[in-house]
Amino acid sequence: RASLALDQQTRNEGNIAAHGGGVGLVGTSPDATAEVILTNGSSIEDNEAVDAMGQGGGIYVRGYGTARLVNGEVSNNRARWAGGGIALDGWGGTFAALHINPPAAPDPGSPVVLAGNVAGQTAFSSSEGFGGAIYSKFGRVDITAPDVGQFTTMLLQNEANHGGAIYVMGQASDTVVTYVDIRNAWIAGNIAHGKGGAFHSRNRVQWQISHSSNGECLLAGEALPCSVIAGNEARNETTPGERAGGVGYLDNSVGTPGGTFRFFRTLFIDNDDVDGTAAIAAAFYDSALIFERCVFSGNRAGSGGGALIANAAGMDTRFAFNTVLGNEVDELFFMDGGTLLTQGSILWDPGKPVWTTVNGASMLHQACLIAHTDVDLPNGVTVVEPDLDSRFAPRGGSPAIDHCDELGLVPMTDLYRQAAYDQWPRTGIPGLF
Q1: Whole-model pTM?
Q2: What is the DSSP track for 129-170?
Q3: 235-285 confidence digits (pLDDT tens)
Q4: Which residues of 377-398 are buried (b: 16+ CB within 10 A; e: fewer)?
């Protein structure tokens, strides 16, 4: 039942422990929980977890415990094994939790920042270095945000072998799901020396990444959508040429339940699978990829090779109402069987095939797709310049306006959670998610 509040610009710096270089919590039962609260500009910086299995350079939460960040920084901490910034250790099947809950307007304050944290040692190892900013074993990661028109959480320049920003270990269970929910976050410049430039998970983990602000968020005077994933890298140092996921890598063992990446209303820009073949995401076995109302621009795979998104054998991919513009890849999708839903999307990346398809993969767009080519695509694709503005929205005379009206399938709000040009309720596609 311990509760530790770091308040009024408290500074926790330069400490060393086996686990929890800055703060260590152990909750022994649901009735004996432990909690740390970071608020009012306090910081946990330059601490280190040095054990061979050291977790939580900044904060270590074991068992029934909670880390709650309201305002402040967890930065430049290091853990040898996992969680350079924060580690949630679901020891014995318990469920530690991380909640980042910035206050609402009119006083949202400065964002919660997790920056420059490192998991692992200098030399790459496949057996350590999980989650540069956050590592979770079975624990919920919940990053909420009020509608304040600004980024309320920043995950910047963290580094690990696996999952540059976040690594989550889920259970191999049909009934127990580990949840990651991230809103209004600027996630940029994170590096994985192996796979998952920003995110990496294994087994039954469900990710949902979006924003809760109506309109734009300002960053250094620039107006942006309020969920941005930019400039993250998967370097794939030991297995070059494989799919590593410049943003995310979703993995699980054969025969165990997989996880789900769900991205909504997010801008993906300048992410890089440096020596691999999946600029944004790769998913395996019984996993799933879902993207809605997102924009993809300037993302890269290898030396211009590979795909934007790649699936595993037989896995469906939902890619609805998205916009793809100018990425350094060989093709936009690699589909090994399964169904690719591209309804309502704009795929304008001239000079590239839309997809590589093997093992009988199919595409479903219901004559509701604008693309730079119709080669090897189902009938009904509209090949015409979409004419978008700097906010990635159709200009007044754009052929994208009302393009899907007759289907009644267009979401009510756009990338910015504002009224879309097409005002129809979405009914979805039966049988696919």
Answers
A1: 0.94
A2: -B-SSEEEES-EEEE---S-SS--EEEES-EEEE-SSEEEE-
A3: 998 888 889 999 999 998 777 778 999 999 999 999 999 999 999 999 988
A4: beeebbeeebebeeebbbeeeb
